[in-house]
């Protein structure tokens, strides 16, 4: 809610935000009732100074030098991490705060921003918990598909009689079965910059997911008793759902470094899935089958272009929990 406030006010006031402007308008907003309480939250989570930013940049450069990493070419700096995503408000430009990029306040509380905020405090424990919760969230979204029966992962015995787990979700429709593997891994700066090792990173993050889809598909088609409740008489499609977009990942150049499955597989960000499950002018089944025949790579986002969508009830419910889900009466 504070991020939403910082963004909305600073966008309308040339990048400026002063907690005193909110005196009398806070009510019981997020348990904050005074501008001073609001300022404490901003200082703790959103604010920094130009000196702190310079010190951070210097420390980053020294760490890179110690690690033998070459500094970025100045022309590539726009692809690197922007420290304003972590601390979007500057406190040393007069009263209140200056937000040079108001949208950075929203980036701070995006899944991408929250991941690093949580990692900073809790390290791998946070990443593990986030991965589990993300998997369940994807299952809730899949449950919105009309006419679908959604089954969770299956424990079964492999060739060595070890107990192993299948993919995360099986979505059974009248004319196809969608196999879904969820990965909370996100593209790093190296991948966004497109260095020589981009293929290694793509393979490391996503190849296992494609292999898992193939293994579970084989169990379905081979009639493994543990998979008896998954129909084996229908078309199979696969989907790897990621938390953040892997841009161009479904193009032939990127897909060439991933394993080849015996059925069509796409990589989709969860934002694409959130739209696809409420498509209104076709069925999800037809949307998936049509997209999977594209000769240029199967992209859910491309299949959604020009479509009509209903309201996603999970997103709508989440929006209603925000302090500013409804406009307040204008008092200024």
Please outline the helices and strands.
Elements: H1 2-12, E1 16-17, H2 35-45, E2 47-48, H3 50-66, E3 89-90, E4 97-98, H4 103-108, H5 111-122, H6 124-142, E5 149-152, E6 155-157, E7 163-165, E8 169-172, E9 176-183, H7 189-193, H8 198-221, E10 235-242, H9 252-255, E11 265-269, H10 270-276, H11 284-292, H12 300-304, H13 313-320
Parallel strand pairs: 2-3, 9-10, 10-11
Antiparallel strand pairs: 1-4, 5-8, 6-7, 8-9
Helix pairs in contact: 5-6
Question: From the alpha-carbon coordinates, what is the Rg to the nearest angstrom?
Answer: 23 Å
Distance between the termini: 20 Å
How many discrete structural domains? 2
Please report the total strand number as a whole number.
11
What order do the strands of the largest sheet run in, or round the barrel if closed?
Answer: 5-8-9-10-11
CATH topology name of the largest domain, in short, is Restriction Endonuclease
Class based on secondary structure composition and strand pairing: alpha/beta
- Series of secondary-structure elements, N-terminal to C-terminal: HEHEHEEHHHEEEEEHHEHEHHHH
List low-pLDDT spans.
none
Mean of pLDDT = 89
Kindly provide the name of the CATH class of the largest domain: Alpha Beta
Provide the β-strand percentage band. Answer: 5-15%
- Roughly what percent helix? 40-55%
Shape: globular
Per CATH, the architecture of the largest domain is 3-Layer(aba) Sandwich
Describe the largest sheet.
Answer: 5 strands, mixed
Number of helical segments? 13
């Amino acid at each position: 809610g504070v991020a939403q406030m910082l963004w909305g006010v600073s966008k309308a006031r040339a990048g400026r935000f002063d907690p005193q402007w909110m005196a009398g308008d806070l009510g019981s907003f997020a348990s904050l009732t005074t501008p001073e309480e609001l300022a404490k939250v901003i200082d703790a989570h959103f604010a920094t100074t130009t000196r702190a930013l310079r010190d951070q940049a210097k420390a980053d450069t020294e760490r890179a030098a110690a690690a033998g990493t070459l500094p970025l070419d100045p022309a590539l700096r726009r692809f690197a991490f922007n420290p304003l995503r972590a601390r979007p408000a500057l406190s040393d430009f007069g009263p209140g705060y200056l937000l040079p990029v108001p949208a950075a306040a929203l980036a701070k509380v995006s899944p991408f921003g929250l991941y690093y905020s949580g990692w900073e405090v809790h390290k791998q424990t946070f990443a593990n918990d986030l991965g589990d919760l993300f998997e369940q969230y994807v299952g809730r979204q899949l449950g919105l598909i009309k006419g679908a029966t959604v089954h969770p992962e299956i424990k079964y015995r492999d060739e060595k009689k070890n107990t192993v787990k299948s993919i995360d979700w099986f979505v059974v429709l009248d004319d196809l079965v969608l196999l879904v593997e969820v990965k909370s891994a996100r593209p790093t700066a190296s991948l966004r910059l497109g260095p020589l090792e981009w293929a290694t990173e793509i393979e490391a993050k996503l190849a296992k997911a494609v292999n898992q889809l193939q293994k579970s598909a084989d169990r379905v088609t081979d009639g493994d008793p543990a998979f008896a409740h998954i129909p084996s008489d229908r078309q199979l499609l696969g989907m790897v759902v990621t938390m953040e977009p892997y841009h161009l990942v479904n193009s032939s150049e990127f897909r060439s470094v991933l394993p080849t499955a015996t059925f069509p597989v796409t990589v989709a960000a969860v934002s694409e899935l959130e739209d696809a499950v409420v498509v209104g002018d076709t069925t999800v089944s037809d949307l998936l089958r049509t997209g999977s025949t594209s000769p240029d790579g199967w992209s859910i986002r491309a299949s959604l272009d020009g479509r009509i969508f209903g309201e996603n009830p999970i997103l709508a419910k989440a929006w209603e929990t925000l302090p500013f889900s409804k406009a307040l009466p204008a008092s200024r």
